[in-house]
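Weekly modeling sync, notes
Attendees: S.R. (lead), two postdocs, one rotation student

Agenda item 3: backlog of single-chain predictions. S.R. asked that every request posted to the team notebook include the full sequence so nobody has to chase files. The rotation student volunteered to paste the first one in as an example of the format we agreed on. Action items at the bottom.

Example entry:
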Amino acid sequence: MSLETGSQPARPTIAAGNAEVRETFPFDDTRDLDDARRGFLGTAEDPLIRDSSGAVVWDLDAYGFLAQDCPDTANPSLWRQSRLCVEHGLFEVVEGLYQVRGFDLSNMTVVEGSRGILVIDPLLSAETAAAALSLYRSHRGDRPVTGVLYTHSHADHFGGVRGVVTDAELAAGIPVLAPRGFLAHAVSENVYAGTAMARRAGYMYGAALAKGPRGQIGAGLGPTTSTGALGMVPPTHDITETGQSETVDGIRMVFQLTPGTEAPAELNIHFPDHAALCMAENATHNLHNLLTLRGAEVRDPHAWADYLTEAIDLFAEGSDIAFASHHWPVVGRDRVVEFLTEQRDLYAYLHDQTLRMINAGMTPLEIAERIEMPPGLERAWHTHGYYGSVSHNTKAVYQKYLGWFDGNPAHLWEHPPVEAAERYVEFMGGADEVVRRARESFEEGDFRWVAQVVNHVVFARPDHEAARALQADALEQLGYGCENGPWRNFYLMGAHELRHGPIGTPTVTASPDVLRALDLDQLFAALAIRVDGPKCWDADITIRWNVDGGESHTQRLRNGVMVHIRGTGPAAGEPDAEVTLEEQDLRKVLLGTTTTDDLVAQSRARTTGNPKRITELFSYLANPNPDFTIVTP
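Predicted structure, as returned to the notebook:
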């Protein structure tokens, strides 16, 4: 049994709210549970999946407590969703098409071909993917992997690829399929803003939180993220247009490209010989994110809805079952159409109504408070905000069209958090007075206000223990009441940071495999992001890298900006130092695993000019902090 992170029981206000949820929705409807268990063939004998050092990266039994009745410390709707998401094992979707579910945040799909198997979306970690493949083979035989397919560019759909294919198998020509633009988006998302995204993902998924009724109970989209080795094998074959057909090992597939929906590069797949439709992550059993809380580019709900309409038109008549890269399948042609139609209406409604309210002059906070979902959609379990929420999705639509500014000039040049907090606390009579009055609000059950106002004390007086304790208690209560899994995890992670300090970042997305997948343009861009601008305002350095058998690349640092120029044209200028080397060695220099001095000493590089300027250039790079604080200054 997981230890409980929560220090307090649910307060009466939260308990009453959760009790109302039990009375509002049809918890006696078991169709989702029947679908989630349908086709079950078995699960792993050992519930612990370990890495090479013996550390546990996934525990299949960690969520056993969800078999109990929902306590007051959890929203019953989220508890129900989490219970469905932890049904783990190998499941037959249709004959010849299988899914391993509950072994990671996402599902791994296996389609049997003439000689072997096509693996679709090999989870987040190599260890969980290898365990999933082993489970499949224990029931269906030791079939070789004859193809890999990534449905989209998020790490939980490609990160475990090293657990299902070897370098030797790849060298032998196993095809790796992905939608157009996959590689650029996959590597840029995990490198450019990867440090901040990974840090926030630690809050969003709560992987480091203890599992239990007062702790982490799921992330809505799945249980949580595994903590094993994340890898990357670049695609060998791009899907470039809707309607494109491909056959891999006798498996016929027809594709629909859906860029700008759940991911910048994504596709749906129809299997005509199986009458089955894979909806990737475009139609799952929850409202998805239009702007994920870990941070990403804003997604387009209008396009998302249009692609769902197109999927119905293209594939519904030939689909007796729909499945996705998360959750469980929908069975029956009529139910598939109903499911996709309601999902379509969900995103279209959020888009259109948010714009209507924007054009009535409402701000993001006002829209999030006032928007109401249609009863017909609210009655469907799969439209609930277990992962995305109506509240933060409407703000995402606002951001897509109008950006961060709500039009009120009072918000145009506000003080940053610490400076504002100091002024608020002084205005409100000092830290002790704010905490005293906030305790009264806490006893009244106004936890939302407590979190908002005591946050000022925490940022103005971070050593005020009473404020930190009260803020932690308020965040914890807010977490207990959340139907949204990431919201619960954010609140509980915040409470943990206030009580014990930062946990850290459980999963590093910028893994060696991902970094190796960067092309040279992306590598130079990744370095430019790390330049400490003020430190090198007066520096003016030009370094030219001549790749043996390839083209030249010039780095110019001036005005605190590092620019990458291909070739030796006028923009490149005259270099202070020039280095000639192999591309693989240039990549190592840019990644920081070797230096030009080391390469010269090994006779693997030649330099002219002043090599000290190269050292100076790299001295201006700052290392990101993967453990920065979030709820404290």
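Discussion: group reviewed the output briefly. The chain has a mean pLDDT of 94.
Action items: rotation student to repeat for the remaining queue; S.R. to check formatting next week.
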